[in-house]
Design brief:
The complex is a heterodimer. Chain A is mainly α. Chain A has one domain: DNA polymerase, domain 1 (Orthogonal Bundle). Chain A has five helices and no strands. Chain A is globular. In chain A, about 30% of the residues are buried. In chain B, a hairpin with a 4-residue loop joins strand 21 and strand 22. Chain B has three domains: about 300 residues, FAD/NAD(P)-binding domain (3-Layer(bba) Sandwich), CATH 3.50.50; about 110 residues, Flavocytochrome C3, Chain A, domain 1 (Alpha-Beta Complex), CATH 3.90.700; about 110 residues, Up-down Bundle (Methane Monooxygenase Hydroxylase, Chain G, domain 1). The relative contact order of chain B is 0.17. In chain B, strands 1, 2, 6, 7, 8, 9, 16 and 17 form an eight-stranded mixed beta sheet that branches. A four-stranded antiparallel beta sheet of chain B has the order 11-14-13-12. In chain B, helix 2 packs across helix 3. Chain B has 16 helices and 22 strands. The chains are: A mainly alpha, B alpha/beta. The interface between A and B is medium-sized, with 21 and 35 residues. Bound molecules: flavin-adenine dinucleotide. The site of flavin-adenine dinucleotide has 45 residues of chain B, from helix 1, strand 2, helix 4, strand 7 and strand 14.
């Protein structure tokens, strides 16, 4: 479970909007992600805050391999 | 003691705009700099700033730092220190050009000079007409600033300690500050960062309120550390609010919604702004709208099961207008309020945005506190800059775009003072034996606390109390009750506990440690606000509706020890120009 702990802290961001979106995502989706999806989520967390928020709010389209996880972020 | 000790010339806590600007100056002077940050530096809250940074470059229209100074003094409702304000406005063009040279991608005019946009409160000719003074990088000014400063710091070998949380400052018996005790969030390891000088740049503390635009990390850690070390916090009653944040979330709903014809309703469906501002109605100024909303809630006409918010109706505009004229609002309402504004009103509430108060500092970035020599004795070895510091350039109310400016000006001036200080004084005193006692005791309590109340519950109660009793519009009776309530919450925080006691990435432990800091800030804010029986700038009281210069033209100082209050004079005298005498603040 160290994985979830690590990710939980990385979900602390500079933009409040992201804090809220990522918190909801952790509660609703994270446990059910498979290893590949966790990898994708971790890549998404490495993006700058504004880019990640644009993805989460549908203002920008994700790379094909990120699509499934970004869809979950958008669904909330 | 037995803790590992790492020694640097300068230890900086905070990797936002202020911390990184200071680090850059110090590392360029070949000092060994450690910069600690809870999160990756470019994820600091500075990333949220969109509007820009104010400087009288005069690239679009004629401008002058004297005008900028006037606007800032007036905006601050005369509580700002005029020496510091002069220093900031005079230095503004220089620090902006410097940032440009570090690589900041400012928006530009066709001839290559920096483009400037208008921003509320910034005027020409001592308040005559609006002037374009804000320098921006699209709507990502803060983001661009952080990236520019981070890259520049990498080149000069600033040592970043990322995902390290400072817990307390180390202060010896003479009152000199010798560094900080910090915890690596990944491993739980505790280390003493010994610094010949220590700079706090930990940002704001908007999270004390239930509704706040601030990110979760804005927990006022620097303020908590200073308060526990026996030093005061200044002017904490002054918090700036925005009238419409999404209830329960804090995300801002732009004022454009009311501009396009949206309006506010109470629980009875009444368009109450008609009563408070018969002409301007929902387009009245921010403070009038916020005050009306708070009054409706206080008098029991708030919406929802706790009667604690207001409804912003815009469905009558129709989906076409909403989509076309208010892009992004629908997605924000759906995402954060769970309502589709095409059909239902958005629940909103006045939302805390910016903290004017903080750690008392002079315009050289030195932390000051009352001592044997007067009310502003320098605390040796300790500096503060950015939103955590109260210099005080923002006084009772901050002007938009002056905060990013504050980071650049005072981040740099603190660093320069440190460089100078280290030339004259080696600052190599031995660490006292009890250097880490305070933070270790805090950690030990969390380790051993049995059946403690959950940290999240206590935090939620603190935020609720602050919002309800010490919000945007303040009532004498509520403030009095609020003081008792927040003390009760503080006592509960002292017994709160965490279920998870693991060492690695223990977010629960971090949140418990953050709560200690939030509680200090909340106490300081409530107690300072209750005592100040006047209205000035952002501190707006129903029972004392006028500014009272005869009795209250002074800075508040709050001490944790005994919740004691003290006061000190405002610096009415600028450095080189004539003083601006207090006038009524009308726009
Ligand atoms: C939505 C929004 C928009 C804004 N827009 C503007 C604008 O357009 N113009 C303007 O001038 N101002 C604006 N402001 C205000 C401005 O952004 C902030 O006041 C400013 O960015 C604060 O910068 P800082 O460097 O003091 O702190 P921050 O950027 O908040 O950085 C604090 C740093 O301290 C670190 N830290 C905190 N506690 C600890 C600890 N215990 N241990 C280690 N590290 C710690 C954090 O990790 C972070 O790196 C805006 C604010 C908001 C909320």
């Amino acid at each position: 479970m160290a994985d979830l702990d690590r990710v939980r802290w990385r979900c602390r961001r500079g933009l409040l909007e992201l804090d809220l979106i990522l918190k909801a995502f952790l509660e609703r989706h994270f446990e059910r992600l498979d290893a590949g999806q966790r990898e994708v989520f971790s890549e998404l967390l490495d993006q700058p805050d504004n880019d990640l928020l644009d993805l989460a709010l549908g203002r920008r389209e994700p790379a094909p391999r990120h699509r499934a996880v970004v869809e979950m972020l958008r669904a909330g | 003691m037995g803790l590992p000790v790492r020694t640097f010339d300068a230890v900086i806590v905070g990797g936002g705009g202020a911390g990184m600007r200071a680090a850059l100056e110090l590392a360029r002077a070949d000092l060994r700099v450690a910069l600690l940050s809870k999160v990756f530096p470019t994820r600091s809250h500075t990333v949220a700033a969109q509007g820009g940074v104010a400087a009288s470059l005069g690239n679009i229209e004629k401008d002058d730092w004297h005008w900028h100074m006037y606007d800032t003094v007036k905006g601050a409702d005369y509580l700002g220190d005029q020496d510091a304000i002069e220093f900031m406005c005079r230095t503004a063009p220089e620090v902006v050009y410097e940032l440009e040279h570090f690589g900041m991608p400012f928006d530009r005019l066709p001839d290559g000079r920096i483009y400037q946009r208008p921003f509320g409160g910034h005027m020409q000719e001592y308040g005559r007409n609006p002037v374009q003074r804000a320098c921006a990088a699209a709507d990502r000014t803060g983001h661009a600033m952080l990236h520019t400063l981070y890259q520049a710091n990498l080149k000069v070998h600033t040592q970043f300690f990322i995902e390290w949380m400072a817990l307390d400052i180390v202060r010896d018996r003479d009152g000199e500050v010798l560094g900080v005790v910090a915890m690596e969030i990944e491993t739980g390891e505790i280390v003493i960062f010994r610094g010949r000088c220590t700079l706090l740049a930990t940002g704001g503390a908007g999270r004390i309120f239930a509704s706040s635009t601030n990110a979760f990390i804005n927990t006022g850690d620097g303020l908590g550390m200073v308060a526990r070390a026996g030093l005061p916090l200044q002017d904490m009653e002054f918090f700036q609010f925005h009238p419409t944040g999404v209830y329960g979330a804090g995300v801002l709903i732009t004022e454009g919604v009311r501009g396009e014809g949206g309006f506010l309703l109470n629980k009875n469906g009444e368009r109450f702004m008609e009563r408070y501002a018969p002409n301007a109605k929902d387009l009245a100024s921010r403070d009038v709208v916020s005050r009306a909303m708070a009054t409706e809630i206080k008098e029991g006409r708030g919406a929802g099961k706790d009667a604690d918010h207001i409804l912003l109706k815009l469905d009558h505009l129709g989906s076409e207008v909403i989509n076309r004229r208010l892009p992004g609002i629908r997605e924000i309402a759906i995402k954060f309020a769970n309502v589709d504004p095409v059909r239902e009103p958005i629940p909103v509430v006045p939302t805390a945005h910016y903290m004017m108060g903080g750690i008392p500092a002079n315009y050289h970035g030195q932390v000051v506190a009352p001592g044997a020599t007067g009310p502003e004795e320098v605390v040796r070895g300790l500096y503060a800059a950015g939103e955590c510091a109260c210099v005080s350039v923002h006084g009772a109310n901050r002007l938009g775009c002056n905060s990013l400016l504050d980071l650049l000006v005072f981040g740099r001036s603190a660093a320069r003072q440190i460089i100078d200080d280290l030339k004259r004084n080696p600052h190599l005193k031995p660490l006292p034996d009890d250097a880490a006692d305070r933070p270790l005791a805090r950690l030990a309590r969390l380790e051993t606390q049995k059946d403690g109340e959950r940290v999240a519950e206590v935090q939620a109660e603190m935020r609720r109390v602050m919002q309800a009793y010490c919000g945007v519009f303040r009532f004498g009776d509520l403030l009095k009750q609020g003081v008792d309530k927040i003390k009760e919450v503080a006592a509960r925080a002292g017994h709160s506990g965490i279920g998870d006691k693991s060492k690695t990435f223990n977010t629960a432990r971090v949140e418990a440690l953050e709560l200690d800091n939030l509680i200090e800030v909340a106490l300081a804010t409530m107690i300072s606000a209750e005592a100040r029986t006047e209205s000035r700038g952002a501190h707006d009281r129903a029972d004392h509706h006028q500014r009272d210069d005869a009795n209250w033209m002074k800075h508040t100082l709050w001490y944790k020890q005994g919740n004691r209050l003290d006061y000190k004079p405002v610096h009415g005298k600028p450095l080189t120009v004539e003083a601006f005498e207090p006038k009524a603040r009308v726009y």
